[in-house]
Design goal:
There is one protein chain. The protein is mainly alpha-helical. It has a single domain, classed as CDP-alcohol phosphotransferase transmembrane (TM) domain (Four Helix Bundle (Hemerythrin (Met), subunit A), Up-down Bundle), CATH 1.20.120.1760. It is built from eight helices and no strands. Helix 2 packs parallel to helix 5, helix 4 packs antiparallel against helix 5 and helix 5 packs antiparallel against helix 6. The model has no long low-confidence stretch (mean pLDDT 89). It is an enzyme of class 2 (transferase). Keywords: Membrane, Transferase, Transmembrane, Transmembrane helix. Pfam families: CDP-OH_P_transf (PF01066).
Length: 207
């Protein structure tokens, strides 16, 4: 929901950094993979309750996620890059939740399971629609620079990261944050399924 505004705010800084990396001949996919492995360090850091360091890894991962897209546009975006970007993002998001479950299974495991379950709804509706949007050559007016059709909703990247940051700052309240965010993800899933069915039905009527 907030991505369209947050992306505009950080785009100038990311663009300038991407130009520097491009001059150094650093490839977009290298940034994607490096950022992913840095982000995955959050799992053991969370498990051992080093929440501040986990937050650092989280922020660095998200910076890399923004930089790889800007670099890709400078170097010619590829399907391989778009594929890596979305797959590694979903693994990273689930990994953060898993790390909190490891940190305190008694208090966090059930809420973590509910949140990962809700991620399946948002992720499946998001990716499934992208397949049919590509087949019907639909393009997103909200996010035209994305490598695939970006079906928006209440919980997008900005909201996800905001909740993860809150969880790292106040880990003792992880379960509360997780249940709230799982509920928002459920609403997003309903919105995306409804929007996807409506859009595809309209396309079928026109065919």
């Amino acid at each position: 929901m907030l991505d369209r505004w947050s992306l505009k705010l950080i785009k100038p800084a990311l663009g300038n950094t991407a130009k520097l990396l491009n001059k150094l001949d650093i490839k977009a996919n290298h940034v994607t993979v490096t950022g992913f492995f840095i982000g995955m360090l959050s799992i053991p850091l969370l498990a051992f309750e080093h929440y501040n360091w986990a937050l650092v890894a989280l922020v660095l991962n998200r910076l890399a996620d923004g930089l790889d897209g800007e670099l890709a546009r400078l170097q010619s975006a590829t399907d391989t890059g778009a594929f890596l970007d979305i797959v590694l993002d979903f693994i990273f998001y689930s990994g953060i939740v898993f790390g909190f479950a490891l940190a305190n299974p008694d208090a966090n495991a059930l809420a973590a399971s509910a949140l990962i379950f809700s991620f399946m709804g948002t992720g499946a509706s998001f990716l499934a629609f992208a397949i049919f949007a590509e087949r019907r050559q639909l393009s997103s007016m909200t996010y035209p620079s994305k490598g695939f059709y970006y079906l928006n909703g209440i919980t997008e990247g900005t909201e996800t990261i905001a909740f993860f940051v809150l969880m790292c700052i106040w880990p003792m309240h992880f379960a509360i944050f997780a249940w709230i965010f799982a509920g928002l993800c459920a609403v997003t899933t309903v919105i995306r399924v409804r929007s996807g069915v409506f859009t595809l039905t309209e396309q079928e009527r026109k065919a």
